[in-house]
Design goal:
Order of helices and strands: HHHHHHHHHH
Number of strands: 0
Shape: globular
Structural class: mainly alpha
Radius of gyration: 18 Å
Strand content: under 5%
């Protein structure tokens, strides 16, 4: 239980640090720099928390109900605190395709996301080097290495990432139909169910920048294979979902696509 309490303290510290950054950004006048700072802080929070949860789940061998409960709670917290940040390059690409964001702005936002992902790696290693718990000490002995995150073939893992991204996007596109108080919990429940269903095969990242921070440093497969699984899979899943619900179904039913746009505050994956 000590390992769990230490990890919860690490999660709390990361959340407080990122929330302080967001509050500082809120004092800035609305503009690009404010958006970039919010995006970086929220992406850093998502990646830091996922690093700690993954280490805790793999090393401390948490019981599945405990691990899934932590995933659910952290996802709710992420959704409620991200303040419109996407933390997901797939969502940024979607905004470019919809014409709501320029290519230049999209490149800048995506750069902030990947920079925050790398910073989260360094932050996690710095915290683990302190040896605050047995989990951190054991991981330190392995040189902070992680091993093959795929529990199936590359094609199976890519299919899981595609399906997970499709499901999250579908939930985000229709969550506005629920009461506002239930929306964050609905998305968190979907994410948690997907982690339970697909976590053993691909890790259920369904977010390119999150996978880059958490899974890409792991041994077992090549960089290109990880790109295929964690970048191409989610992008195709998101694109397929939008195509189905905004083009194919309305075409077959003769209905308008109005009302299916994704609220900005729900365009993200948390684990």
């Amino acid at each position: 239980m000590t390992d769990l309490y230490v990890s919860l303290a690490v999660l709390g510290a990361a959340l407080l640090l990122c929330e302080a950054t967001r509050r500082a950004a809120a004092r800035l006048s609305p503009g690009a720099y404010r958006i970039y700072l919010l995006e970086a802080a929220s992406t850093f929070q998502l990646c830091c928390c996922t690093h700690e949860l993954k280490l805790l789940g793999e090393t401390a061998r948490l019981e599945p109900p405990v691990g899934l409960t932590l995933t659910y709670i952290m996802t709710v917290i992420h959704i409620l605190t991200f303040q419109g940040a996407t933390c997901n390059p797939s969502a940024v690409l979607e905004s470019v395709c919809r014409g709501t964001r320029s290519v230049r702005a999209a490149v800048a936002v995506t750069t902030c996301q990947f920079g925050a992902a790398v910073a989260a790696q360094l932050f996690a290693k710095s915290v683990w080097s302190l040896g605050l718990s047995d989990v951190h000490i054991r991981h330190q002995r392995f040189g902070y290495r992680c091993f093959d995150p795929l529990g199936g073939t590359v094609l199976e893992a890519a299919a899981v990432e595609l399906a997970c991204a499709f499901a999250v996007q579908a939930a985000a596109m229709h969550v506005h139909k629920l009461d506002e108080k239930l929306q964050a919990h609905f998305i968190a429940a979907v994410v948690t169910a997907l982690v339970f269903a697909g976590g053993s095969i691909s890790g259920a990242m369904f977010n390119p920048v999150l996978a880059f921070s958490v899974q890409f440093p792991c041994s077992g497969h090549t960089y290109l294979e990880y790109c295929f699984v964690y970048w191409l899979g989610p992008v195709l899943g998101l694109a397929g979902c939008i195509l189905l619900f905004e083009k194919i179904i309305p075409f077959l039913s003769g209905k308008s696509t109005a009302g299916l746009e994704v609220p900005a505050d729900h365009k993200e994956k948390t684990q």
